[in-house]
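Office hours follow-up: a student asked to see two folded examples consecutively, so here they are.
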Amino acid sequence: MDYSTSRVRIAMDFSTLFFLFTVAAILAYGAGARRPGDDFIESSCKITRYPNLCVASLRSYAPSLQAKRSQKELVKAAVKVSLQNSRNMTVWAARLSRRAGDLSKRERGALRDCLENFDDTSEQIRESLAELKHLRSDTFKFQMSNVQTWMSAALTNEDSCLDGFQDVGKGRVKVLVNGRVQHACELISNALALVNKLAGSTTGY
């Protein structure tokens, strides 16, 4: 390698490093930048079991939540996040189940059961969201009781998915499903915590 080639390579290395440092700085600034509604979300998420995830999952709703500063709207947003994630999981699991050649018989059976659980979960969260959209002062307690029941059942369904994988070895599919289910359970758990807080209020509707 001649001297000029070496200089060019060194220059490219420094250029690449500068670019990476610049991108990292931008990302760090974006992650740390405060937006209207962040304080409301952070204070509300403190009651959840996974507050960091709660804040991260709701940040896209910050502007609208800031405008209303409503616990009901916050709960609706958390339930929406859970619902979208549950639907995405169903699509992901359905695609995975079609790769029959990559799965053992036990994995296929466990994944098939999970798909049913995911469908049930999505329906229960959907019913919860529909109820939250039509809360009335005269039926508030009854409606919130329904939402609590459905969200609790959704959380149980996600846990039940993992039961089918207990007899499956330490395969890649089990690891993937476990990770997805754990994330879903954390989102639903957070939403349920916010639901419970709203249910205990007297002015939530």
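And the second, which I mentioned at the end of office hours:
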Amino acid sequence: MTLLLLLIMIYGLDADEFYYESGNITLANNTRTLEMTISLESGHNITVHDTAKKILCNSTTNSCYIECSFNDFFEDQNFTAPKKFDICAKKNKNNTRVEFSIKNNASLCKEKTISLCTVVDCLPVEIRKLLNEKDQQMKIPKDLRNLLSMKKMCQDVIFNETMVNTYIGVEKKAIHGVINMTVPEQSKTYYHEDLSMTVVKMNLSMTEEYAQIHAPRVLDNDEVAEMWIPLKPFQNQSENKIGVVTYNADEHFKLNLGNKDVISKIIRIEFPGPDTNKLTDRLKIQFRIKTIDKSVSVT
């Protein structure tokens, strides 16, 4: 009884109450824009516009975030005639979260099936729940891309000071998950639209005290930093991989900087191991700054 009351206090009386209904989705390819229209029997509608630069999602009352698994609707953009599918949808009472799958037959939509797509309204309570779900069960490497999409599609929610630290923590877990993936070569770079990450295996047989690493380029920016990572913290560790991340934008870090602006690319270094905040040897980063008449390097 105590547990039930606690769940009601946290999530509300109808938090776990879902409804099943039929609907359909229509896909149309209109001049470099993939359009998806989701229509449910109850009259709830969701529209998605996928362009080369961004994805826009709108439900009946709010902007929204959408992610799909398995057959990604946004991967095949070569069709010309509209496509229409019958779907089974699972939604909460307020229509702020809808999960749907392709309907394979004429049966009622009450079966527990694996969701093909999840649509969540850009509301703090729904985004926080989704972030907590990803924190508990991370799908690597796809969830890193999903988190970056969520940040762009629900900016006002993610960048709010009550939410941004939660987002940064889950993004950090996703970054660590990518770092922990098997990397057969000495280094591997992952490119996304607004961040790039290089995962490097530290060569502990080196006689030097530092390993030199180039920060990955993001988008078309050629101004990358060089850094020297001290090898001493890795000598007695079973894990010897680090991730060097370059961000194209710094919006979700600004809240911790007061009224200051960051004009360089944000560089983040992650080591999925014991706390290395207290380094005896300095981490060195060399980057370029622009003056009126020339560029110089600063360490």
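Two things to take away from it. The CA atoms of residues 243 and 270 lie 5 Å apart. The first strand starts at residue 18 and ends at 30.
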